[in-house]
């Protein structure tokens, strides 16, 4: 039976809804099962004539050992590549494992990494500690300012790494503009697209070399599996698979791959629901007397709303808000909210809220210039609440927040 495999196989013509459901999946040739099998086997019957170090083996025919490749993980990787219109994808045990694999692939002592000034906290911390210890130069740039990106590029810049929208500020970066600067400097551009998902933005089409996803978030979408992905040119991904997968070993469990594969089939549907709920909840918050400011790329109050309209086909379900009596609210939210969970993470079907005080995150995670800190404060004030709006009925989310705010006496 013919199936929709990857962009080269015709998924390029199919719509994203169809790709999400079908890409990477095929009926089991033995049982004729219509849905993907979960193959938990760590090893596979070997060809006695093949060499022990079958490093090249990946794909349908030559499974060997699950750290090399696994049929269920392979199906997930095919779906990921088709949805991002990438040549190749590799799945990892977590988003951070994917980021680490990218850094080890692109950077050597003496090289320079140009990092967005506000990126996922653990990525920033890895750059502060580990990369510096390895003799890799790291500097940070507010990538929403294109002229600053141009000025920050150095002769030895090998990799530019950004997030858009960035976690937790929801500030955006013009991917096409940064890609052009990186390319003319001989550097590669990686975009962490966890907040956008391929439903909103496809960074490779805009000129990026690599895309990173925390599959734990929207891609899996149900809060029950940790995973990550790196997508890019076949040649790079094959090398990453050899080094970061086979040698360093941060591969994803087939069970998690199977859960995420299943979650991804409904990604386009879920993103529409997240977006429409976020608009309702965001408007409710904007009108609420306890709230000072709401940041959401889909609102024209967002300073980069024009870029959001150009670069995002869906505004996603992430919003932040500032509140006058912010320090009293975390305890109230944790105790009083009945629908929304007070917890980290995001992109789940279930709404999640978390408190991020500005002084604390600037101190523990980032290493910014005073001017960059000022710009962080422009977006976040003294503290933000990051709200990942789920796919519940928006009226129930608003009522839940209203109930909690009412306890602010
Ligand atoms: C969560 C997250 C990561 C890290 O992913 P894990 O799966 O938790 O390792 C990286 N980038 C962004 C933007 C994230 O939100």
Identify the notable features of this structure and list them briefly.
five-stranded mixed sheet; 2 domains; Aspartate Aminotransferase, domain 1; binds pyridoxal-5'-phosphate; Aspartate Aminotransferase, domain 2; seven-stranded mixed sheet; 409 residues; alpha/beta
**What is the residue-averaged pLDDT?**
95
The biggest beta sheet reads: 7 strands, mixed
Measure the end-to-end span.
65 Å
Low-confidence stretches at least 5 residues in length (pLDDT < 50)? none
- Main CATH class of the largest domain: Alpha Beta
Q: What is the CATH fold-level name of the largest domain? A: Aspartate Aminotransferase, domain 2
Unique bound compounds: pyridoxal-5'-phosphate
Describe this structure in words.
The chain is α/β, with parallel strands linked by helices and 409 residues long. The chain has 2 domains: 7-264, Aspartate Aminotransferase, domain 2 (3-Layer(aba) Sandwich); 267-405, Aspartate Aminotransferase, domain 1, CATH 3.90.1150. It contains 15 helices and 12 strands. The protein has helices at 16-22, 71-84, 95-106, 121-133, 146-152, 175-184, 197-200, 234-247, 254-264, 267-286, 305-311, 329-336, 358-364, 370-380, 394-405, and strands spanning 88-92, 112-116, 137-141, 157-163, 188-192, 210-214, 228-232, 291-295, 318-323, 341-342, 352-357, 383-388. Strands 1-7-6-5-4-2-3 form a 7-stranded mixed beta sheet, with helices on both faces. The longest helix has 20 residues, at 267-286. The model has no long low-confidence stretch (mean pLDDT 95). Bound molecules: pyridoxal-5'-phosphate. Residues 94-96, 120, 163, 167, 192, 194-195, 214, 216-217, 226, 228 line the site of pyridoxal-5'-phosphate (PLP). Pyridoxal-5'-phosphate binds at residues 94-96, 120, 163, 167, 192, 194-195, 214, 216-217, 226, 228.
